[in-house]
């Protein structure tokens, strides 16, 4: 429980602890023993056992009969489905992304911010090339992705600074931009151009171009990106041929979400 939660009289600590158990599986991305769940969630062994038992009875966890390790059950997808089917951002943006995908055949991703990451809430694979992309719900850091940096560029300066300061800035590939000053300078360039291109910063062999998606009051809501491979594309060609596609797509989504034209 964080300090803010401790001061909130309506905060229910037991709910937070149960969610920490579920979040442990995202960190590990595999089946877990009770001891591993205890370590990853920060809960004591006894508390972890009680929460796991409750989640098992409720159907959100299932147990391997041989190893007795636990994993998330398909029931968790009920919550994901409810999000995907009721989110107004997705309801508007998805149809534009699908139309762009059908017209070009390229890989498209629609992202929304989660902490200092972008979470992919729509992912349409390329019809032309095998590109490694996260599944829906996959996350990637803002600082080293075209999606993330384009989103950051649309935030007020103090908000983007906060997210950059609270990013780990790990070098995921040899091409990853990890200097905070360089990232801030890059945001100014994105504001001028309206899009960002990332060259193999998160996935080797992948070029990505992205633009921010805005809502009412030109509030940053997320971003949309297009992915191609370095085998077939250069940065220069991406900027010349694909940046107009992604900026037009982002502008169409933004207008549909109520964003006023830029000055």
UniProtKB/TrEMBL annotation:
<dbReference type="InterPro" id="IPR029016">
    <property type="entry name" value="GAF-like_dom_sf"/>
</dbReference>
<dbReference type="GO" id="GO:0003700">
    <property type="term" value="F:DNA-binding transcription factor activity"/>
</dbReference>
<feature type="domain" description="HTH iclR-type">
    <location>
        <begin position="12"/>
        <end position="74"/>
    </location>
</feature>
<feature type="domain" description="IclR-ED">
    <location>
        <begin position="75"/>
        <end position="259"/>
    </location>
</feature>
<dbReference type="InterPro" id="IPR014757">
    <property type="entry name" value="Tscrpt_reg_IclR_C"/>
</dbReference>
<dbReference type="InterPro" id="IPR005471">
    <property type="entry name" value="Tscrpt_reg_IclR_N"/>
</dbReference>
<dbReference type="GO" id="GO:0003677">
    <property type="term" value="F:DNA binding"/>
</dbReference>
<keyword id="KW-0805">Transcription regulation</keyword>
<protein>
    <submittedName>
        <fullName>IclR family transcriptional regulator</fullName>
    </submittedName>
</protein>
<keyword id="KW-0238">DNA-binding</keyword>
<dbReference type="Pfam" id="PF01614">
    <property type="entry name" value="IclR_C"/>
</dbReference>
<dbReference type="GO" id="GO:0045892">
    <property type="term" value="P:negative regulation of DNA-templated transcription"/>
</dbReference>
<dbReference type="InterPro" id="IPR050707">
    <property type="entry name" value="HTH_MetabolicPath_Reg"/>
</dbReference>
<dbReference type="InterPro" id="IPR036390">
    <property type="entry name" value="WH_DNA-bd_sf"/>
</dbReference>
<keyword id="KW-0804">Transcription</keyword>
<dbReference type="Pfam" id="PF09339">
    <property type="entry name" value="HTH_IclR"/>
</dbReference>
<dbReference type="InterPro" id="IPR036388">
    <property type="entry name" value="WH-like_DNA-bd_sf"/>
</dbReference>
């Amino acid at each position: 429980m964080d300090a803010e939660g401790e001061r909130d009289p309506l905060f229910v600590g037991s709910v937070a602890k149960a969610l920490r158990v579920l979040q442990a599986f995202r960190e590990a991305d595999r089946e877990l023993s009770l001891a591993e769940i205890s370590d990853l969630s920060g809960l004591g062994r006894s508390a972890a056992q009680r929460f796991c038992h409750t989640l098992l009875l409720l159907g959100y966890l299932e147990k391997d009969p041989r190893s007795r390790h636990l994993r998330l059950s398909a029931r968790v997808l009920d919550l994901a489905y409810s999000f995907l089917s009721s989110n107004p951002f997705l309801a508007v943006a998805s149809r534009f992304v699908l139309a762009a995908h059908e017209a070009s055949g390229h890989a498209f991703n629609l992202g929304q911010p989660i902490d200092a990451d972008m979470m992919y809430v729509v992912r349409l694979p390329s019809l032309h090339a095998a590109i490694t992309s996260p599944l829906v719900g996959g996350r990637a850091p803002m600082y080293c992705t075209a999606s993330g940096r384009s989103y950051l560029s649309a935030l007020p300066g103090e908000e983007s600074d906060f997210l950059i300061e609270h990013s780990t800035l790990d070098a995921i590939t040899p091409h990853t931009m990890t200097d905070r000053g360089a990232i801030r300078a890059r945001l100014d360039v994105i504001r001028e151009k309206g899009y960002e291109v990332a060259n193999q910063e998160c996935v080797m062999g992948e070029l990505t171009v992205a633009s921010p998606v805005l809502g009412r009051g030109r509030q940053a809501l997320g971003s949309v990106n297009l992915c191609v491979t370095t085998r077939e594309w250069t940065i220069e060609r991406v900027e010349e041929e694909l940046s107009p596609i992604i900026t037009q797509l982002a502008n169409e989504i933004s207008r549909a979400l109520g964003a006023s034209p830029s000055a």
